[in-house]
Amino acid sequence: MESQTSNGGRTFSRRWVLGAGATTLLTTGLSACGSSGGSGSGGGTLTAFVYGDDAVKVQTKSVDRFNASAAAERTKGRIKLEKVPGADYPAKLRTAMGSPNAPDVFFNWGGGSIKAYEEAGQLVDLTDTVASDPVLKDGFLPSVLAAGGLNGRTYGIPMRGMQPVILFYNKAVFAEHELRPPTTWDQLLDLNSRLKKAGITPFALGGADIWPELMWLEYLVDRIGGPEVFERIKNGDAAGWGDPAVLKAAETVKQLIDDGAFGKGFSSVAYTNGGAPAVFAKGKAAMHLMGSWEYSTQLGKFPDFARKNLGWFAFPRVEGGAGDIRNVVGNPTNYWSLNARTSNRDAAIAFLRDCASEAYAKDLVAGGDIPATSNAQKLLAASPNPEFATFQYQMVRQAPAFTLSWDQAVDPNVSTPMLTEINKLFVGKSSPAQFVSALKGLK
Questions:
Q1: Is residue 97 located within the same domain as residue 185?
Q2: pTM > 0.85: yes or no
Q3: What angle separates helix 358-366 from helix 56-67, to the nearest 10 degrees?
């Protein structure tokens, strides 16, 4: 659970920075206690808990901007930012939310990471607030705003960059063998066959970490059954694992493995130690399904490859499937949520509005992130890689749905056993039918 590389002093590849909270947040210690006072519009200083990594510079500037604004004066509120070290964040938030000193505003991962707080009545339901406020309603990409909620309700405002999962490919390998990025599953299978004949593993896969395996199932379930299949599971219906799309996705994964799409040793290759990126960059594998941080990982480890031969494309359409090829899976972003017991809800909501500002988006772009704001397109020319940044932004902007990574979206008690079952499927210790049966039993 570590980031992969850094460039210019900024940590990239926060796959497991983003995921940490979802797997460790427990319901213990939660109560209806909140920050001091009720939920009105009293004055005073509000506390905002934030994940204390390098990217926190954006939130620091946002707080300074708000505290000097007319909105702060009007609402008689100020924000105090409390930067919590990354490894300590989930536990400290959980403890604080069960005490009289809970934060008014707090950083989270959406989905499963806030489910216990929502069930305890500790979150402000922002659905109506967003719908009636043009700045919040029109300020963010709809798929990202929706991805952080629960049961169709909005509990968070996007406040960091987007990290969609993308199929990357080695341009040099494709050119040498006269290949083109596939847009359908049949084309992908044809590529597999041609690459294997050439002695090249079709896909790099860091199976030792398990979570890279999860990405294949996320996309296949979406492409086969549509985003509604996992949405049902995310909202707590374990019977949703019995949807035919889950079984078909598991069978498709088994076919890929049996067909040698990932090579023979993928279960002993890790992403976190640079193994899978190296296999890909050195031409031993032609493609790599990975989060958008793969670009930064390659830039840090294999800069020549990243600049000259790293290409990218969307996950293909599965013939006959219900899912739209424009749908995306991955890490939509991080979110600010509000404690239902905040002493100054008006000030807290006014602070959230800064996340939709052009100044906020510019700060994200300068740090190498892709904002989830609707105004970001024109700002991407200032990104470290404008072409890749624009591809990501357009990909998410056009997506009818952006499914949050399963291990972050499900209940924290389900996340670890779910990953265990995924690994058993990939290494051949369970059949697709056994995989589905095991998942249906997770509560």
A1: no
A2: yes
A3: 150
